[in-house]
Specification:
The protein is an alpha/beta fold. It has helices spanning about 1-60, 65, 80-90, 100-115, 135-140, 165-195, 215-235, 270-280, 295-305, 305-330; strands at about 70-75, 95-100, 120-125, 145-150, 200-205, 240-245, 290. The termini are far apart.
């Protein structure tokens, strides 16, 4: 009997020692994990202050002397593009406006010239037409010293599964969201390289960091813009050129409302004007940002979510949007 007890005691002691060693190992892993997360939070706070706070203290930079006399903005007659053009004009830059609506272009041009006393050039072009339009655009802007290119033009569709999508819509998304930014960057980069200065801004989206069910093609095009900007930034940083990826969350525009009425902006859903003002301050400071610090907070939260949770939540939200839009279409009938 004593032998059995001794064996049990030895077994128990061995288990306790193993458990203690495992506990110590888990404690070390936990400490490392906690330290890493703490450092990430501290770094995130520092970056937020550096990107969004410091530029306000430095005052308004001279964009003309830093980049050049002209800025080019695509998709400039509504929303973020229009507000970004206005913001650039407030810094004294001349603006090249490219959009498909000649009437809206004329009005934007006249408003900018009257309000800010700058020069404008308008080019009417429908980016959904693909390759055919770019020779004309290049000819129109060839004599302009373009310091900043804002690749803002983009289209969005309401949630659909891929097999439900119209083929024309698929090609429109690719031609407008992908091809336009790529080819426009190719057109302006040679003169920027020759001068050794310039900036390109790609309007991506915060949702590009995660796949989005029922908006698969749209989010894929925005991921392309983000990756394109990151790669070009690496290629051209040593040539004095900044390529920035702007990744906003929801901004109160017609596009974000799926063609409906623009809702009153809240703290986390800024107006296009407020967003553009904040985003432009980050140019020259960082090459990848949401452009608006409340959006940066949302961005960090999305990054921390497990991919499976994000996919599940996004699919529910997009399904609800899809039902609401279809109900509205039926009422109109």
């Amino acid at each position: 009997m004593a032998v059995a007890v001794d064996k049990f005691d030895l077994l128990f002691d061995g288990i306790v020692r193993q458990f203690t060693s495992f506990s110590e190992a888990f404690a070390i892993v936990g400490a490392i994990y906690t330290t890493q997360k703490t450092l990430n939070i501290i770094h995130g706070c520092y970056r937020a202050i550096y990107v969004y706070g410091a530029p306000k203290l430095k005052g308004r930079p001279n964009l003309v002397s830093r980049y050049g006399r002209w800025a080019l903005v695509t998709g400039c007659t509504d929303g973020i593009g229009k507000s970004y053009a206005q913001e650039l004009a407030s810094y004294g830059m001349n603006i090249i406006l490219i959009s498909r609506s000649s009437d809206k272009l004329l009005k934007c041009s006249q408003d900018l010239e009257r309000q800010f006393g700058i020069e404008t050039l308008t080019v009417t072009a429908d980016f959904s037409q693909g390759r055919a339009i770019y020779t004309m655009i290049e000819e129109e802007i060839k004599d302009k010293e373009i310091g900043i290119l804002v690749n803002n033009v983009g289209v969005m569709y309401y949630p659909e599964n891929l097999h439900e999508m119209n083929m024309d819509r698929i090609f429109q998304l690719i031609n407008v969201n992908v091809t336009a930014a790529t080819v426009m960057s190719r057109i302006v980069l040679p003169q920027m390289v020759e001068r050794g200065s310039g900036a390109i801004v790609n309007l991506s989206a915060a949702t590009s960091i995660r796949p989005s069910p029922q908006l698969a093609v749209y989010t894929a095009t925005k991921t392309y813009l983000d990756y394109l900007a990151q790669a070009l930034q690496y290629e051209y940083a040593d040539k004095g050129i900044m390529v920035q990826s702007l990744m906003p969350c929801f901004v109160a525009t017609k596009t974000s409302q799926y063609g409906g009425d623009v809702q009153s902006p809240g703290y986390f859903i800024p107006s296009a004007s407020l967003y553009a003002k904040s985003a432009l301050r980050t140019l020259g400071v960082t090459s990848r940002t949401t452009g608006y610090w409340p959006h940066q907070l949302q961005f960090y939260i999305v990054e921390m979510l497990p991919k499976s949770v994000w996919l599940w939540c996004t699919n529910i939200v997009n399904s609800a949007i899809k039902r609401r839009i279809k109900a509205g279409q039926q009422k109109k009938k």
